[in-house]
Amino acid sequence: MQPLLDKLNGLSRLCLVFGGFLILGAAFLVTADVIARKILGWTLAGADELSGYAFGISTMLALSAALLGRANIRIDIAYQAFSKPARAFADLLGLVLLVGFIGVVTVLAYGVVADSFQHWSRSITPLRTPLAIPQSLWFFGLALALVTGVVLILAVVSNIVRRDWSAVQTMAGIKSVDEQIDEELHASEGAQRARSDQDGPVRGE
């Protein structure tokens, strides 16, 4: 199960990068539109429409990474008082409910995309964008999240059967304060190393 999770994690990271570039592109496009309106008095047709597509697609593409990274928000007011087995079953229940919801949305999304393909629907805008194109990427993000969630559920159940509570915590549990601090420290150290590499060696050394 772990090799499959590793592959899904790699694919999810690629989706995150792609979604990040979409957001950056949308930001540049909207900025150019604002500048063109202010200085030249004309607008870039479809900037708002394309940025909306970019936001929706990037959000869906990030769902799988959010599941694997335990980035979804959860209320832990009573969770910390549970025993390790109780926490594991609470993690499993929360994961099943979340993935079940994603499954319902994915099924409904498939109907929307299939209808757009069947009728080759276009947006009611000057761009006349074929809606099946952005909707397909949107649906791909949902489907990837659903597959990732199902694999996670199977992995969590397997670890519960083996009574490996620490593995369940690592896969589906709420991040502890120490884990969050470690992540922030690693991110800060990585940013500092990146800046040092860009600056290069100090003269005179």
Concise synopsis of the structure shown:
With 205 residues, the protein is an all-alpha fold.
- Termini gap: 50 Å
Shape type:
globular
**Proportion of strand residues:** under 5%
Low-confidence stretches: none
Element pattern in H and E: HHHHHHH
The number of domains? 1
Strands, count: 0
Largest sheet: none
Mean pLDDT: 86
Write the layout of secondary structure elements.
Blueprint: H1 2-40, H2 47-61, H3 63-68, H4 84-119, H5 132-161, H6 165-172, H7 177-199
Helix pairs in contact: 1-2, 1-5, 2-5, 4-5, 4-6, 5-6
Describe the overall structure.
With about 200 residues, the protein is mostly helical. The protein has one domain. Helices cover about 75% and strands about 0% of the residues. It contains seven helices and no strands. Helix 1 (about 1-40) packs antiparallel against helix 2 (about 45-60), helix 2 runs parallel beside helix 5 (about 130-160) and helix 4 runs parallel beside helix 6. The protein is globular and about 65 Å long. The model has no long low-confidence stretch (mean pLDDT about 85).
Output the keywords.
205 residues; mainly alpha; 7 helices; 77% helix
